[in-house]
Write a sequence for this structure.
């Protein structure tokens, strides 16, 4: 192994280093994803679009922000270098021109990123297609405040409620006093597909 490594050119050592590192990270990401701890975007996500406070807790449409669809995500960088590195290594003996080899490898890396993004987009659309009908299922459900809800409908916050044993997150308003993070609530009305009207459970106790 040492002799093989020493026989490589500087460029091949760099390529092997990039490729093996990307492959190892890809394997770790895949294992964590299957275990339910999606590492795709919880680590070093540099997506310049709006952020969801915690992608793993943002169901329904919010999942689209945390599934690798943003261009500048750590997962996409890994996928790019995975495609780039293995292509360069495999085709090194077939393409004599270093410039052409780099060009082909870059194109393959970009293609892999695009394919993965399309896959995540498809999976996200499939998930959304199977979403629970909030208008018929949310009223009466209980949960807790995720982001503080301003008083008397002066602004919206976020709540997490349990529908059919599934925790889902929605925008929320309240008619009473402000509800702080962690307050237990119950849904009294569905304003629209993304927004609920809630009240604190304490106010229902007689």
């Amino acid at each position: 192994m040492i002799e093989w490594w020493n026989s490589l050119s500087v460029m091949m050592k760099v390529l092997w280093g990039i490729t093996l590192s990307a492959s190892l990270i890809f394997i770790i990401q895949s294992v964590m994803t299957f275990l339910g701890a999606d590492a795709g975007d919880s680590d070093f996500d540099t997506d310049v679009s709006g952020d969801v406070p915690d992608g793993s807790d943002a169901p329904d449409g919010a999942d689209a922000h945390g599934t690798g669809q943003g261009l500048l995500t750590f997962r996409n960088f890994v996928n790019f270098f995975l495609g780039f590195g293995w292509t360069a290594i495999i085709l090194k003996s077939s393409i004599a021109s270093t410039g052409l080899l780099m060009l082909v490898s870059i194109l393959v890396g970009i293609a892999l990123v695009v394919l993965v993004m399309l896959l995540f987009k498809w999976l996200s659309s499939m998930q959304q297609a199977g979403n629970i009908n909030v208008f018929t299922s949310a009223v009466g459900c209980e949960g807790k405040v995720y982001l503080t809800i301003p008083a008397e409908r002066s602004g919206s916050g976020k709540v997490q409620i349990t529908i059919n044993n599934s925790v889902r997150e929605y925008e929320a308003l309240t008619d009473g006093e402000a509800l702080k993070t962690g307050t237990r609530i119950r849904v009294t009305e569905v304003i629209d597909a993304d927004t609920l009207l809630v009240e604190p459970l304490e106010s229902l106790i007689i």
